[in-house]
Amino acid sequence: MLERYIEAGHQAEAFWGLTLRLYQIHMQGAAARIQRDHDHAKAMAWLTAGLSRAAKMPKLDRLLQRDGEIIDTGFRLSTIKAQLPVITMAEWAARQGAMG
What we know:
Layout: H1 2-7, H2 12-15, H3 20-53, H4 60-64, H5 73-83, H6 89-99
């Protein structure tokens, strides 16, 4: 049981404090996560294959859109930009010189 628990991605130290029911819950959760990861990988492979055959590349907004949702890419990008640190070109160049 311990070997399967570790194989599922859990820490061995946590195993010894589990009841059989908690073990079952952890393993069911791991199985669901693994299945979700496999589904995601299959979906990405399908999407990549489909996009490689597309005559015209769909807009990113359209690809990211969820049912009933209108996506404003400009708003998303401005939100991300607002979270990034402000740096001048001179500061950036100085960092590059220090790294190189």
